[in-house]
Structure formats: structure tokens, C-alpha cells
Amino acid sequence: MRVDDLILELQDMVNDAKAVPLSRDKKVLISSDRVLYILDEIDEALPTEIRQAKNVVADREQIIAEAKSNGEEIIRQAEERRKIMVSEHEITKAAEAQAREIVTDAKKKASEITKAANNYVDDIMKRTDELITGCAQDIRKARQSFKQSKK
User: Fold this and answer.
1) Which residues fall within 8 angstroms of residue 62, CB to CB, at 6 or more apart?
2) Which long-range contacts (CB under 8 A, 24 or more apart) does 30-38 make?
3) Helix axes 92-150 and 3-16, enclosed angle (nearest 10)
4) Cβ within 8 Å of residue 2, ≥6 positions away
5) C-beta of residue 20 within 8 angstroms of C-beta of residue 28
């Protein structure tokens, strides 16, 4: 079960619980075993979501590595091509200009790919962070409600 579903279940349990007669501070009767079970389930589910966030980070590293590798391959190919073209004097200047252009284009493309990968990963990490933060806040609220309901 997902963490947010478990938190909703806790909230529903507290909201649907029977009130303790003659209590002024809205005490309710709930099953501590069920609450502890749900908290254990949340505790087990959180590492899964954290692992998913780590996978996102690993994917980011792989995307960046691939972008760098592609850029290096393009640069290597451009260098090889430049060396071949230098063999004839008439085309030397044109070859050098073209090689510089290819290298510049390759660096630009590699930079764009890296930037896009970083933006993608940052967006996923932001959404994951917001989800985990929201879940943690909900857990704190549920635990506080639970603690207050036990008083």
C-alpha cells in the first residue's frame, strides 16, 4: 500500500472513531494494534519511495554519462575527420573550419543534452521530495493526533 493511502486510512480511523463519553478534548477510541500496524506499513513503504528517488538520481547520472560519451564520440569523430582532410593543402583551411564547427556543435549538443537531463532529473527529484515531505508531514500529524487521542 502507498504511504499516502496508509495516512488516509489513519485519518479515517481517527475521524470515524467513537468519542469517549464525557471527554472535553475530543478523545476517541481506536485500536492501537491497527494504528501500530499501519505505522509499520508506512515505515516499510517509505524506504521504497526513497529507493525510487535514488533510482532517479542514478538515472540522471546515466543520462549525463551517456551525453558525455556521445559528445566525446562526436568530438573524436570530428578530430579523425579533420586529420584526414589536412592531408591536402587546398582543403586544409576549409577542413579546419569545418572541424572547429563540428567540435563546437558537438560541445553545444552535449551541453544541451546535459542541461535537459539535469532539468528532467531535478523536476523528478523535486516532485519526489514534495511527495516525501508531504507524507512525512501527514505522518507527523497522524502521530500527533494519535498521541493526543491516547491522553
Assistant:
1) none
2) 30/146, 30/149, 32/150, 35/10, 35/146, 38/6, 38/9, 38/10, 38/13
3) 20
4) 45
5) yes
What pairs with residue 19 in β-bridges? 28
Residue 17 DSSP label: S
Q: What is the pLDDT of residue 133?
A: 92
Beta bridge partners of 28: 19
All cell numbers assigned to 7: 495516512
Other beta carbons within 10 angstroms of residue 139's beta carbon come to: 18
* pLDDT digit string, tens, across residues 26-81: 888 888 899 999 988 888 877 777 777 788 887 888 888 888 999 899 999 988 88
Beta bridge partners of 29: 18
